Amino acid sequence: MENTAPSLAERELAISRHIAAPRAKVYQAWTDPKLLVQWFTPPPYLTVHAELDVRPGGSNYIVMRGPDGVDVPNRGIYLEVVENERLVLTDAYTKAWEPSEKPFITICLTFEDEDGGTRYTARVLHWTAADRETHEKMGFHEGWGIATDQLAALAMKA
Fold this sequence. Notes:
There is one protein chain. Helices cover about 25% and strands about 40% of the residues. The chain starts with 11 loop residues before the first strand and ends with a helix. The chain is built from four helices and nine strands. It has a seven-stranded antiparallel β-sheet with strand order 1-9-8-5-4-3-2. The chain is of the alpha+beta class. The radius of gyration is 16 Å and the shape is globular. The chain has helices spanning about 25-30, 35-40, 130-135, 140-155, and strands at about 10-20, 45-50, 60-65, 70-80, 85-90, 95, 100, 105-115, 115-125.
C-alpha cells in the first residue's frame, strides 16, 4: 500500500530570527505568564490571560481577545521542556492528556546561542496540509513576525 500522507514540509510553517538577547531571556518570555501576555499576540489582538504549567505533560491556557472584544481561549500541553533550549507544545490535548476536539498544531521552539544573542526558531507543525494552508491564510507569517518582534523587544529590555 502506498503512503499518501502529506509530507512534513507540506504541513509546516516556520519562522527563525536572531534576537539580540540571551536565550534565557527569550525562553523566559515564553514560560513566564506575566511576560507572555505582554508580547504573544499581534495588535489589534491582546493576550488577556495565561496559565502555564511548564513541564512535560503540564497544561497551558492562553486567552486572546479580538478587536471585537470576543475572547478566544486556547488550551494545550507541553510535550518537551528543556530549559533555555527547547519547548514543544500542542493543542492535541487540553489538559492531563485529555484529547482536544480538533487538534490543529504542534509548536517546536528552539533557543540557540548565536552572535551574542539567540537564534529563535518556531516550527509550527499542522495535522493536515489543509490546516497549514488555513493557518498561512490567517496571516501566519505576518502575525508570527509581529509577535516575534514583540518577543525580541521584551527579551532585550527584560
